[in-house]
């Protein structure tokens, strides 16, 4: 079979998506119609209890926001020229700033010079952004970003080095890429109210020649033989372990067997939250042995124009003093590159489309109601994460 070049592959994919679009629209329409006529279902009957016997929410000891692919160049660059980098976060700023920790996938290098002065990868779309991106991320509330992705090495080692410098200058840690293997495998530790959180990054989709080596810059590949010891090390030294992983198939909302196998292996090794990205569309969430696997967090800042690439979500993790934890899913719509919350009645149709993508259970089924609760304009899953607090107590007793 003749190998297709990049433009041919994109044309084939676009034709497939056009065929699927009517089906996706019809499904979402009838789901939304069901929502609008189900007044009791939306009126708060399924509100999540705080688990405190009706005395109100337990005290929150940690909150973290996780988002998907951030692409600040190309057509988004025109928005930046017109309104500035800060404007990209206007629609979600309050949610980001109210979280203790915020992390996402920084899906391009940040260049400090003219792009023509850098080496370039061949036969692919090249992405980059400018110096102001790092400071804007920090100002918006980000506390770490993943650099292990398919675009970080678009402009070679120099482009990646510029990215690291800009992030250091903004006091914003990056994980999953580096000047050498030791640098790329660095685990970031951050403390919130006595809880130590470890963050690390890796990619299962690696462009030829971009994987980090002992003395060569690059991205950390998701080779389980080498990355599982890193996760185990993080688990020993932290109370909560967050693993970014770039994986899956672009524009495919299905979880592939390889993703599931890797995600569960990471959880078995000690990951509490696995944050997936790369498909540019949402994929279901899995709760596995107390861990959360977000198979794809979709886009967050993007100029991609298909409905499924514009409909996304903001994922928030909340840990309470009594050991309860919530995963909250806030539906988003990306317009002109900028995410905004799908609030109010106008967003009902698109919210249901988002819920359809992030859940494995059929909407309105008993299985769905057992797994998820509707709380305002978001979905909430409640779980017992008292082990996180017990881990903190045990490690404090041993002085870490």
UniProtKB/TrEMBL annotation:
Residues 63-304 form the Capsule synthesis protein CapA domain. It comes from the Bacteria. It holds the Pfam family PGA_cap. SMART domains: PGA_cap (SM00854). InterPro entries: Capsule_synth_CapA (IPR019079), CW_Biosynth-Accessory (IPR052169), Metallo-depent_PP-like (IPR029052). Belongs to the CapA family. This is Poly-gamma-glutamate synthesis protein (Capsule biosynthesis protein).
């Amino acid at each position: 079979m003749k190998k297709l070049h990049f433009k041919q592959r994109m044309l084939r994919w676009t034709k497939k998506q056009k065929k699927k679009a009517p089906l996706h629209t019809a499904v979402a329409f009838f789901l939304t119609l069901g929502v609008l006529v189900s007044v009791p279902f939306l009126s708060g009957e399924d509100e999540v209890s705080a688990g405190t016997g009706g005395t109100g929410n337990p005290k929150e000891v940690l909150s973290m926001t996780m988002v998907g692919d951030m692409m600040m160049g190309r057509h988004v660059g025109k928005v930046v020229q017109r309104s500035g980098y800060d404007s990209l976060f206007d629609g979600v700023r309050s949610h980001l700033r109210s979280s203790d920790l915020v992390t996402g996938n920084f899906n391009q290098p940040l260049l400090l010079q003219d792009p023509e002065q850098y080496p370039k990868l061949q036969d692919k779309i090249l992405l980059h952004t400018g110096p102001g991106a790092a400071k804007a991320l920090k100002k918006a509330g980000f506390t770490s970003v993943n650099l292990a992705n398919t675009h970080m090495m678009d402009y070679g080692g120099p482009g990646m080095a510029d990215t690291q410098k800009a992030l250091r200058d903004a006091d914003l840690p990056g994980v999953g890429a580096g000047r050498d293997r030791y640098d790329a495998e660095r685990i970031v530790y951050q403390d919130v109210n006595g809880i130590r959180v470890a963050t690390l990054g890796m990619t299962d989709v690696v462009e030829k020649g971009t994987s980090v080596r002992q003395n060569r810059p690059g991205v950390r590949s998701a080779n389980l033989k080498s990355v599982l010891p890193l996760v185990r090390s993080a688990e020993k030294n932290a109370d909560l372990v967050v693993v970014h992983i770039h994986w899956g198939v672009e524009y495919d909302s299905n979880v592939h067997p390889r993703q599931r196998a890797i995600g569960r292996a990471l959880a078995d090794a000690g990951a509490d939250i696995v944050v997936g990205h790369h498909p540019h569309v949402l994929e279901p969430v899995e709760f596995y042995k107390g861990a959360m696997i977000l198979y794809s967090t979709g886009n967050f800042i993007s100029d991609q124009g298909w409905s499924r690439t514009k409909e996304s979500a903001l994922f928030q993790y909340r840990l309470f003093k009594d050991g309860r934890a919530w995963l909250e899913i806030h539906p988003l719509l990306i317009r002109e590159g900028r995410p905004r919350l799908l609030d109010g009645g106008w967003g009902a149709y698109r919210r249901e489309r988002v819920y359809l993508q992030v859940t494995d259970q059929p909407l309105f089924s008993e299985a769905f109601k057992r797994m998820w609760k509707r709380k305002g304009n978001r979905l909430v899953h409640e779980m017992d994460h008292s082990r996180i607090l017990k881990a903190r107590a045990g490690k404090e007793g041993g002085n870490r």
